Structures are given as structure tokens and as C-alpha cells.
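TA notes. Do not distribute before section.
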Amino acid sequence: MTETTVPAAILNALDLADASWRPHLLRGLEAVAQANPGYLPALAVDSYLPTEGRLFAAFAQPLEKVRYVLVGEGPYPRAESATGVCFMDGAVGALWSAGGLSKPVNRATSLRNFMKMLLVADGQLQPDATGGEAMAPVAAAAMSNGSIQTLPELQANLTGEGFLLLNASLVFRSHVKPVIDARAWLPFLQVVLEVLAQKATPPTLVLWGKIAEELRKLPETGRFPQAVAEHPYNLTFIANQGMQALFGPMRLLRRR
């Protein structure tokens, strides 16, 4: 499969990727086709998330700026939420409300726990007290203390730190088990990792959840520093000291 034979719907989605990625993403698609020739043609005529050509939206981060690769499981299973960028729920605008985190953040369990982990890392919450009563004064202060106010600001801070925000499966289909789509995209991600491993300083792989951890089976992952944690939909993620140590110094909740 070459650029001229990649299904048009898949090929057109490359428009949202930075130009530095295009030849590598095409090679990744060729690897998918070699491993499973029927996969991309079937996907192109199927219904999947993300919509609006955002399949490769994560690759808007230029290759040369990548310092971390955060890998989640797959897109949110809702059209308004799946953006092609892992953990960035498109249905979320404001992060805070008068009584704590906003309702859309609280509905997005993984994002909610990530936010609480950042607050614990910043000393604003105690790991054993992250419920509504503890959150209320933190949220009230966040309205005026220089904290970011929206999810796009959080995404911008992550991008500014050099994060490539990937999913182990680039698509979600309600009628297909996520692990099956993730397995189909593994050759694609192998090419992505091969390219990133060639950087003078390989980025850190941040792997969240069992599907993301499947990447550790690839020989390329041995060439990267790694930070591994349970998926953030687990409450235990909030108190994960490894994640606090990684993200705490970045002060991601502070407006840049």
C-alpha cells in the first residue's frame, strides 16, 4: 500500500499532521496494510471515532519538539469528546466550577483523576482527601490565582512541554473490541517509535493502562526512558508517586 492506494478518507486525515510527520505516518500506514491488508479499506468505509478527519490530530506536534510520548488506550467513545488527542475531551471547556471541578471534567473520569493527581503533586490536595469538600476551596482559589481555566489551555501546556498525546488505538468503534483495533495499529506505532528513537535524546514514553503497556512488547520501546502507570480511570492513579514526580515540576495547571 502506497500513498496512491491508501484509502482517500485515511489519506486526507494526514492534513492535520505536521509536515515533519507525513512520510513517517505513510510508512506506518504501509506497515498496517502489510500486517492486515483488509484493515484500512474496511475502516475507511466504517463508522469510527474521532470524526472530522482528526485521525492523526495528535501529530500536529512537530517531530522535532517531541520530548514525551503519552500513550492512552483509545479515543473517548463519544463523538463530541473524541478529538484524536489522548485524554483531551472535546466536550470539556471550563475546568472549574464554584464547588470543585466542572461537571464535564467530573464526567470524564480519566481527566478528573489526572487533574486531581496534578493538584496533589502541586501540594494543593492531600492524596487521601480529594473529594468535593477538599476540592471546593481549591477550585475557588483557581478562579483567580493564575491557574488555567480551560481544557485547551491544559492541552497547550502539555504540548508546550513537548508531549505527543497518542492513543494505542487511533480509533474507537462501538462494534469492535478496543484491543482488536489497538492490535491493528501496533505496526503503525512501531514505525512512530522507530522514528522517535532516532532523536539525539529519545523522548520519555509515558504509558497509561494495559493496552498502552502492550507497546512494551515492541523491541523499539527498549530504547526509551519509560514511566508506566495504571490507567487514570483508576482512583489509585491520583496518588501515583511516579506520575507526581514526572508531572509535578511542569506546573501544568499554571497559566503560561
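Switch to the second chain here.
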Amino acid sequence: MDVKNKVAYITGGTKGIGYGIAKTLLDAGMRVAISGRDQSDAEKAAAALCTDPDRIIGVGSDVRDLASEQKAVEAITKKFGQIDLVLANAGLGHFAPVDELDPEHWKSMIDTNLTGAFFTLKATVAALKASKGYYMTLASLAGTNFFANGAGYNASKFGVVGFTQAAMLDLRKYDIKVTTIMPGSVASHFNDHTPDAEADAWKIQPEDLGELVLDLLKMHPRTLPSKVEVRPSRPDKK
């Protein structure tokens, strides 16, 4: 894909990984839509990312609600006329032993991380068929590696990996590429973490994932890395 002026839609793009990827794609010449649950927050993040209103839009959308995602996609296609890349990035995590895990926390992870990825695809698949575009999910190494206190998060991310791989088989006949990206530790706001440049220097940076997204977009159409695991080169020794 020649990414110049192509349109990307990134859910959960107001901060953290989604925000960093959006910046990288804008720097590469793409037009970008970011979403968050709050319209005002999405607009503020979009304005901070790019001063050219013809290249950026912030939309309020709750990925847990299909109608909300459909409304967001209508606004994006009205502005840009197309969608070439969809990155289902919105996600959250709650961690506790399974016998202590709050049922509402379980539900919020499944609804946001897994059902949200499905609703985002349902809302954008017609646009992706028209553009012969690319659908990506932001999963996690937790999508294949289980750990104590991670029952709900593991369940949601194992689901995202399985969902994305099956969607890849369903959609490739339309020349839509589908990939799940599975990062390890990332310097982001996930789980209420406040990024620290020095303490988080060993971690994957959001812009690193942005470069990975660009590499995937530019890969020859005949080749598809359908599942990409990404780790810090040298994990924290502390």
C-alpha cells in the first residue's frame, strides 16, 4: 500500500498505544481518525496530534455499542470518503485471582477487548471491502501466554487472537488483509500506568508499533504476516 493520503481509523486513539500509532501514521502522510468514548477528549487529542483539520478527526464512540461504532464510521467516511486501515486498539485490563475477580471487571474486559473488536469490524467491513483495505487488532502476548491473576484479561486476548485469525480466513477473498499484533510490555497508559521516559526506556514504545503498522501496510499484497508477536529486546532486569 502506498500510504500517502490513505485513511486510518484507530479506536482507543486518544492516548497510549493508539495515540502513538496515530502520530506515526500522520508523519508518514496518512489521514487519521481516532476515537474514544468521550467526544471532547477525542477532539482534543486529534487537535494535539495534527493542526491540519483536513488530515485528522476525533470521534466519540463506545466500541461496546455497535450503533455507536456505526455512527463513528459514518462521520469518518463523510469526512474522508474512505477507510483503508482499521486498527481495533481499544482495550483495558483488570487483574485479580479468578476467585476474587469482580464480575463487572470480567464483563468490561470481554465487552471492550473482544466484543469491541468484533463491533469495530462489523461497522467498517463494507468500507474495507470497497478499499481492499487492512484490518488489524491490537492483542497482546497475553493472547497466547496465560498468567496468574490474568483470567479475565487472558480470556479476552485469547479471544481477540482467535477472532482475528478466523476473520483473516473469512475476509481474504475480498482482498482485505487481517493481522493481529501481539506486543509485550509497552510504555503506555495501560492499567493506569503513567509513562516515565527513563523507567520505561527498556519497553516497546508506541511509535515502534506505529512503524510496525507501516511495515505491514507496505508489504507486498501477496504476503500476509497474520499474527505478529513483539517483545522488548532486553526485558527489565529489576
